[in-house]
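Page 37, continued from 36.
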């Protein structure tokens, strides 16, 4: 018998969900609510995947995902935040302050004008004009920019790299034009993004510390193998990160179709890191959403998110680097 099942009860189909990140928990929640018998297997000892809230500094700090981008009704995260009582606060990304490496303040109006020029050049880039960064610099007449503008351009390009976690030279300009986003502004979780994680997980049967290494079709169902146990179900839903699939960490029997394997191997995987810094008091403009740092190195910690206002009230900066 599965948890909650009584003898004589007609069971729904059984499903093994592999990985308990946002995708896995969302799938498990929907399947369980639809009457399926769901078992979720997670390799880590925690839930959430790229959602990872840390409270060691005495406040909730998200080491992974931290925002709802667009609070319009069509965004499913809005509904989840409301359902699980998440406390979110508006993040004004236009509220930017900055410093040069020397410590001198950036001219904010010039910075924002330059940022607008960069966005215009980015969306005008084409597949035959060279790398994305080269096209942006060429459109801005990079060779004639004043020295201060060149440093600010480095900071802006470094900030754009954070969105994709990769060098801009490797980004397909055509793909940028396909991006769509929800409207309604950007909102941060004050009490931690994991309010959604644990809301979705409530009442589910989840086994942590159970990395899956093989999934095989067996008769009319599937067998899911971990280091300790083998689980049998009618179906399996696999939601592991793309990097896990690219490393062939899970063996599929039979193997995935060539078109799926080609799609997996053809996707790029970026890296965006956060460094959380806590100070005795804020020495930066405490009412700024973003503090931008301009130097001659475009990806040398160009951007800091301010956790002081209007979020935790603590002197905490989140440094970002791609």
């Amino acid at each position: 018998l599965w948890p909650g099942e009584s003898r004589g009860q007609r069971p729904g189909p059984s499903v093994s969900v592999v990985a308990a990140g946002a995708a896995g928990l969302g799938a498990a929640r929907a399947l369980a609510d639809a009457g399926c018998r769901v078992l979720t297997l997670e390799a880590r000892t925690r839930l959430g995947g790229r959602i990872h809230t840390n409270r060691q500094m005495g406040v909730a700090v998200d080491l992974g995902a931290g925002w709802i981008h667009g609070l319009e009704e069509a965004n499913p995260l809005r509904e989840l935040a409301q359902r699980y009582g998440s406390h979110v606060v508006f993040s004004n990304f236009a509220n930017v302050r900055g410093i040069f490496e020397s410590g001198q303040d950036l001219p904010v109006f010039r910075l924002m004008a330059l940022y607008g020029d960069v966005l215009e050049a980015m969306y005008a880039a084409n597949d035959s004009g060279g790398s994305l960064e080269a096209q942006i610099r060429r459109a801005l007449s990079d060779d004639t920019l004043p020295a201060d503008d060149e440093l600010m351009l480095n900071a802006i390009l470094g900030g754009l790299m954070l969105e994709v976690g990769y060098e801009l030279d490797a980004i397909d300009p055509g793909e940028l034009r396909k991006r769509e986003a929800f409207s309604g502004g950007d909102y941060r979780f004050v009490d931690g993004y994991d309010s959604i994680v644990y809301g979705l997980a409530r009442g589910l049967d989840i086994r942590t510390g159970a990395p899956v290494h093989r999934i095989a079709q067996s008769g009319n169902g599937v067998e899911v193998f971990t280091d300790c146990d083998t689980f049998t179900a009618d179906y399996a839903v696999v939601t592991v990160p793309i990097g896990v699939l690219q490393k062939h960490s899970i063996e599929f029997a039979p193997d995935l179709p060539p078109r799926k394997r080609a799609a997996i191997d053809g996707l790029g995987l970026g890296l965006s890191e956060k460094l959380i810094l806590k100070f005795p008091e804020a020495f930066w403009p405490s009412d700024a959403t973003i503090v931008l740092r301009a130097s001659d190195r475009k990806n040398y910690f160009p951007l800091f998110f301010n956790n002081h206002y209007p979020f935790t009230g603590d002197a905490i900066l989140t440094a970002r680097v791609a």
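The first strand starts at residue 14 and ends at 18. Flag for discussion at group meeting. The mean pLDDT is 89.
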